[in-house]
Amino acid sequence: MSVATEFPVPLSEYKVVALNPNQPKLTDEQKTQLAANIKVCRDAIIFFTAIADAKGLGGHTGGPYDTVPETVIMHGMMEHARNGGTPDVLPVFFDEAGHRVATQYLMAVLEGDMDVEKLFHYREYLSHLPGHPEKGFTPGVKFSSGRLGHMWPFVNGVAIANSDKVVFMLGSDGSQMEGNDAEAARLAVAQKLNVKLLVDDNDVTIAGHPSDYLPGFNVSETLEGHGLKVDIGDGEDLDGLYARMCAAVTTDGPVALINRRKMCPGVEGLEGSAHGHDVIKTAVAIDYLKANGREEAAEYLGSVTKGPGGPTYQGSDAKSVGKNRDLFGKIVNEILDEIPEADRIASVKVFDCDLEGSCGLNHVRASHPEVFVRGGIMERGNFSAAAGFGFEKGKQGIFATFSAFLEMVVSEITMARLNDSNVLAHFSHAGCDDMADNTCHFGLNNMFAANGLPDDGHDKTRLYFPADQHQFRACLKKIYGEEGLRFIFSTRSGVPDLLDDSGSRIFGDGYQFVPGKDEVIREGKAGYIVSFGETTYRALDAVIRLKEAGHDVGLVCKATLNVYDEEMMAKLAASPAVLVAESFNVNTGVGSKFGTELLKRGFKGNYNNIGTNKEGSGGLWQQMGYQGLDSDGIMESMKKLLG
To answer: Where a domain ends, among 243, 274, 303?
Structure first.
């Protein structure tokens, strides 16, 4: 019995309605079918994204759910153009919010490019349905969106290349906070590009409501200020939305439709809530589907079981796992608690980029709102603001966001360094572990932060990636009061405590973190693996297994990434083999330079570095193994060096 024929939301009810933008009033027949299309699409999105929640894969529901009316109308206008109607419309559902990928997958099915059965496997490992759209990876997906704010400038170029066509782009009030969009708006206006923005203005981002934390920001007034024609209306008023889209499409030049609605309209328990941004909880989805007559879909959700867990590892304590990205805020609070309030307010400012719950800053906002700045989705500006606050001696800016966004602030890092600013920056979600959002959200190029010059030791920039929660705590407490730029990295995943041969914590209660000092986790005569972060416990398991197989291999934890411990380098240079294992980009990570540094110190052994080396393939813990960075992969690479 084929699952494909049993998709419990009947997508066969979806009928493309060819819509002529020159006729701005819907017929009764058109409106009835469009309403049915909206209903079936929204129910389908609720259903298959909730499957991912039931499997523990996460995901996003509210964004794609919200923009269904715009999408089905776009689809109708594209169908009209396909049939020879005018104006011509480029048949791509460009979207600057990558987390709305469920839209792309659903439309790929409705367009016949992908089997409906695939929707049962949203965000699963090897399903080719990752958490953000990737061109060439998923059938029917026609673009890679990257992160927020990346698409509009790109779409401008597409519009220039297709000057005879209308080009649509789905937008959002959150995406429009990004500086890229301001630049894109100015170019679109100056070049009279035929780009039509459909902005979902639901006053919701991950951290809350922009009207609360960014008073003064108004997406419609912002776009008007750049010279765009702006049309504001109710995104749930089908007749009004259609008429406004017709007017936009038949108007030359760029137009922004601001479609206002509550997030997840009609979804009890989520409507208007920031929780709608994330994946819908299975129980909420079941209630919704039952209330909307989708009993079979609700029954299916009730039968879904959590996906497989990862392997176990020797040398670490699986019962004691630290989520360092969350601990960051708790540890900062411990430090702030010890600073008198007046001094605290004068000397510290903490800048959030709408990801407070993902980086631990929610704890700081709750306990120390007096030093907390809700900066919105503006990584470049917020990092520079943190650097500006830390411009004076004795003052410190604290900043946090995802590691994937480090690439967006490299220029700002340079300016902060040149100004000798004091910034403590936490970049979470480093590497690829536990990242179903896939390649665009991998934190691979973190070493770009180490862009200073070897000018007689003047550069105080330091990069740290501790291996477990206890080393993370010791590191953060040690580096908090230091000057210069300090970057501390953590993963989306939790990491287990590292253990010595006797089963005791390696970074125990008496451990003191020394910046620049590498730690020997296991000694070895045949060679060493050098690692850090979440790769360390996997490498430790590999070392233990290699020793059991007769290969006396050691392990070094290099938690300070951009400083060379000369004592340890001498030890490694005398070793027969060295392997650097990391989850950073194999081309730009620690290992890409480490071999050269060993050669400078007389190394004559065998060397290799392994890291993230190919586009992701969905899933969570499976990403590391897919890259050859699980215990088995590290063992295999080390055995090749040993000969």
So the answer is: 303
Nearest to 556 by CA among 586, 510, 594: 594
Q: How many domains does the chain have?
A: 2
**Looking at this protein, which amino acid is placed at residue 354?**
D
| CB-CB neighbours of 226 under 10 Å | 19
- CB within 8 A of 392, min separation 6: which ones? none
Residue 458: pLDDT band by 50, 70, 90 thresholds? confident
> CA-CA-CA-CA torsion for 447, 100, 125, 55, nearest 10 degrees?
120
List helix spans (H) across 489-630.
535-548, 566-573, 591-600, 622-626
Smallest CA-to-CA distance from 197 within 137, 151, 243 is with 151
Burial class, 342, CB count within 10 angstroms (exposed 0-12 / middle 13-18 / buried 19+) = exposed
Give the β-pairing of 316-322 and 495-498.
antiparallel
Please give the model's pTM, rounded to 2 decimal places.
Answer: 0.96
| pLDDT for 147 | 79
Per-residue pLDDT for 3 more than 70? no
- Mean model confidence pLDDT for the chain: 96
Residues 294 and 426 in one domain: no
3-class SS letters over 548-566: HCCCCEEEEECCECCCCCH
User: Does the CA dihedral 640-439-52-72 come out positive or negative?
Assistant: negative
What tens digit of pLDDT does each residue of 113-151 get? 999 999 999 999 999 999 999 999 999 999 999 877 789
Look-up of token digits 């084929």 = 2
Q: pLDDT tens-digit profile of 349-362? A: 999 999 999 999 99
- Kindly give the residue spans of alpha helices, DSSP state H, lying in 579-629: 591-600, 622-626
Do residue 186 and residue 159 come from a single domain? yes
